[in-house]
Each structure stands twice: as structure tokens, then as C-alpha cells.
Amino acid sequence: MAIHRFYLTYSQEQIKEPVIYQVARKYDVITNIRGASISDHIGIVALELEGEEDVIDEAVAWIAEQGIKVEPIQKNVIE
Amino acid sequence: MSFVTGLKCRECGESYEIAALNVCEYCFGPLEVQYDYAGIKAAVSRETIEARPQNLWRYRELLPIETEPRIGLYSGYTPLVKAERLAAELGVDELYVKDDSVNHPTFSYKDRVVSVAITKAIELGFDTVSCASTGNLANSVSAHAARAGLRCFIFIPDNLEQGKVIGSGIYKPTTVAISGNYDDVNRLCTEIADKYKWAFVNINLRPFYTEGAKTYGFEVAEQLGWKLPQHMVIPTAGGTILPKVAKAFEELIDVGLVDAAPSRIYSAQAGGCAPVVNAIHRKSDLIEPVKPNTIAKSIAIGNPADGYYVIKAVEKSGGWGESVTDDEIIAGIHLLARTEGIFTEPAGGTTVAVTKKLIEQGRIPRDESIVISVTGNGYKTIEAVAPGIPKPQVIPAKLSDFDALYEAAGEPPLSDKAVNG
After folding, report:
1. Domain interval for residue A9
2. CA 20 to 30 Å from B22, out of B211, B232, B364, B370?
């Protein structure tokens, strides 16, 4: 089992979608919200995902397919 | 003697021992080095610092190292150029350029942060250093690792231009090109950092790495005669340098090396990648990531790690943020070259152009001291300006041909006085 940590950035349209609930139903991952900032313009959620490496990869790919930006908590590390 | 007391989460305040650790286990906030400022105040003076070698370690009490510096012995203490001809062009009284385009050994401000990070890596017992970078950072990590005799891994996107690869490859790191979109490459790099436990200078060593950026601010204050500039324009990429210059100014005041005085700090970004400036303009501290599209590639970071802290530092100082178009950036590079004889990369063109814009907007008054940050060297990015450089005129090797060319150009014929004088 592995634990990975991400920032999810939602646009205004996506904020209403229960994506974290859905990802936990769809994939065998444990979700743990560790922080969140929401404005009327944008939503940012710090999320921990626990599961097998390949399942986490699939879960992340699915979240990204929903139009939500998924990044490591270090954000952009390519400088 | 070290005055470091530990690491502390910038968000929840949780304390940690010194280690290769960058994120709070509880809230995921970034960790920051803590110091005993009362001890530093008792230990340093302007005179002790001025008597030391002219490198970034002259401020070592305010840097997070425990032992003697191993590398970076020629890094830092770059010129603060009094830019009188540029000041005249911009219509201001007192203007300076802090010129890290001549930083040793790889010609960018990254030599500061990497010197500190790799010194810390050696102290912590690492034998391998690494980073994910498309340019200046990779150059600097590779060069410093070579000098320190450390193993070095550089991760790059697989579509990077050959010229950029050579700037690091010459130092013989192991370079790994990763295919995929930016987000995939970015995520893989953090996973490698998690798994391999090397010293990733801007990931697990980030608290120490970013502290090196303070030396840029310390030097500006010292070179101004131990006072703060009234206005300072700084580029924003990952968001390292601006908050750390602000921290440097606060520390200099705290330890009694400069008098407290208003010093406004401005964030400069390219219009094609301005997530921080956009947030400042929205009066929000939430950054909306962007997909970069600018020639200023060294500052094209769509979701900066420390962008939030840039906004906070700008706000606290009473500054502002502005962005400029690629055309304005190119014009900024030419303007600096033409007036001051300094050839900077597009990041420097950005700060010059943003400074011009802020002066024209009236946000920076014309009669107060201004420092423009130049953080990289134009010789690394000649493709950005090459189209605007006229080709030389070719003539046969005869004086009469040159005379004809000179007269055709509308110049007066050479007089004896001009030739002899």
C-alpha cells in the first residue's frame, strides 16, 4: 500500500461535483481531505490517497478526466 | 556556530527537527527554517560581514548551515549596478540593477539557492543530488555537484531543446528525459523524490534551498550602504525569491543591520504565465493554475509552489504585481542592453518591462530608489532575441568600401580628428 498527497484545483463549474466521494466508490482508495480553500472563483483541496500504486494512478487519471487539475502537493517542481 | 533552531510549518506552526523534509505531515504546509535572532543580533555587525570574502556566505549566521561552507565560495556578491542611462530613459532619479546574470558558476540567481541546498545535502550525509529542471536550476545543480564530487541526476521533459541539455550535460550528470505531458512529468519527479530519498534540491531540501535566495536581498541592502530600496521589482516563477527577499529585509531589521523603512516589493511575470499577478489583480490569495505560453521560459511556472507567499509578501510590503507581453519582454532585454550593457534572459527583460510599466502607471514614484532584479543571463537564451538583431553588413577588405558604407548610412565622413582622437 502507498500513500500519495495531491492538490486538486477545481474551477467554478466543478465545485458542485462530489468527485472525492465518487473516486472512493469507483476505485479501491482511501481518501483523506487534509485542507481546503474555496472562493467563488476557485476551489483547492489537499487530498491524501491511500491504496495500491497502480490503483492510485488510475484514480488520479480519472479525477483529471473530470477536468480537475491534480498535482503533487509540491505543485510545479520543474524549474 | 549555527543559529538554526529547527523547521516550522508556515501554516499550522508544527515544529520539526532539521532534516530533508519540506512539507508538514499534518496540514501539508511548507516548512520554514527557524533561527535564534537574538543570538544572531549579538554575533553579527556590519563590520564583521564587510570583513568577510565577497560571496554569499558572508551572511552565514542567517543561512541554514551547521558546518563550514563546502561550495558556493565564489557565488553571490554580484554587482548592484547604478543604472544612470536606464534611469534617464525611464525618467526616474535613482535606479539600480542587481545583476545575477554574472553569478558564479552558471550565470543565474540559482547559484545562490543551489549553493545552500548542496552544502546542506553534504551536511545531511547525501551522496546524490537531483532536480527537475528545464534550464538554470539544472545548470547550477550539475555544476555544483561536479565541484562537490557528488552523484547528480537531472530530470527533464523529453521535448527540451538540445542547447538547454548541453548547459547541464557538460558537467556530466545523469540526465533522464521523461515523455508525457507536463503534469505527468511533474508528478513522476515528485514520486522519484519520495522513493529514492536523494537530495532533491527544490523538493525535500526546499526549506534550505529557498533560504539561499535571501542572500540576493542581503546584498542589495549592503550594497546600498546598509539600507533598503524603496521599491524592488522581482520576477516570479516558483515563488522562491520574492518572499525570501522580503524575509531578508525583515531579518536585517530584526538583527539591527538596517533601519526599518518602507520597502515595496513588486512581482513581475510574463503575460503568458501570470498566475500570481492575476491573483494579485483579483485581490485573491488563491492561485488559479495556468498553462504557460511565453518566451520567458525560465519563469514559466503555471502553478508556483510558493505563489501564495509571493502574494502575501507583496501585500505586506504595499507593492503590486504586473505582467507584460512577450514583445514588451524583448523590448526590455534590448533596453537594458542598449543603456547599461547588460544582456539578460527574458526573465530580466520581464522585470525591466514591468518596472517601466509600474513607473508609467504611477505606482512607482519617479523620485525614489528602485532596484530591478536581473536573475539570469541572455547568452543562454539567444534564440529569444536573435530575430531582432540585424545581420552585419559585409564589405570587401578595402578602406574605400567602408568609407562608402559609412557615408551611405548618413554618417558624416571620418575626419582626421575623429580618426586620431
Report:
1. 2-72
2. B232
User: How far is it, in rounded angstroms, from Cα B74 to Cα B59?
Assistant: 14
Select from B28, B155, B284 the Cβ nearest to the Cβ of A5: B28
pLDDT tens, B305-351? Answer: 999 999 999 999 999 999 999 999 999 999 999 999 999 999 999 99
B420 pLDDT higher than 50: no
Q: Which residue of B has its CA nearest to A5?
A: B28
Q: Are residues B98 and B174 in the same domain?
A: no
Residues of B in contact with A42 (CB under 8 A): 284, 286, 288
Say which residue the cell 558564479 belongs to: B104
B125, B141: one domain: yes
Q: Which stretches of A15-77 are DSSP H helices?
A: 19-26, 53-65
- Residues B99, B245, single domain; the answer is yes
- DSSP SS3 for B225: coil
Chain B partners within 8 Å of A79 (Cβ): 110, 131-134, 136-137, 202, 237-238, 301
Number of H helices, E strands in chain B: 17, 13
Residue A58 within any structural domain of the chain: yes
**Domain membership flag for residue B144:** yes
- Chain A, residues 19-58, CB within 8 A of chain B, namely 34-35, 37, 39, 41-42, 44, 46
Which pLDDT belongs to residue A17? 84
Determine the residue among B194, B209, B281, B282 to mutate to test chain A binding: the one whose Cβ has the most chain A Cβ atoms within 10 Å.
Answer: B194
Between CA B17 and CA B11 the distance in angstroms is 17
Tell me the CATH number at B354: 3.40.50.1100
ipTM of the complex: 0.87
> Is the peptide bond preceding residue B243 cis, with omega within 30 degrees of 0?
no
Task: From chain B, pick out residues whose CB is under 8 angstroms from the CB of A78.
Answer: 132-134, 155, 157, 182, 185-186, 189, 301
Distance from CA of residue B200 to its chain's centroid?
A: 19
Facing residue for B185 by CB, picked from A4, A75, A78: A78
Which domain, by its residues, includes B398? 393-421
User: What is the count of structural domains for chain B?
Assistant: 3
- A51: nearest Cα among A31, A33, A65: A31
pLDDT band at B134 (very low <50, low <70, confident <90, very high): confident
pLDDT, tens digit, for every residue of A18-67?
Answer: 999 999 999 999 999 998 888 877 889 999 999 999 999 999 999 999 99
Nearest to A9 among B190, B289, B305 (CB): B289
Q: What total number of domains does chain A contain? A: 1
Do the domain assignments include residue A79? no
With a CB cutoff of 8 Å and minimum separation 6, the contacts of B309 are B10, B30, B239, B243
CB-based contact B101:B333 (threshold 8 Å):
no
pLDDT, mean of residues B274-302 = 94
| pTM of the model as a whole | 0.94
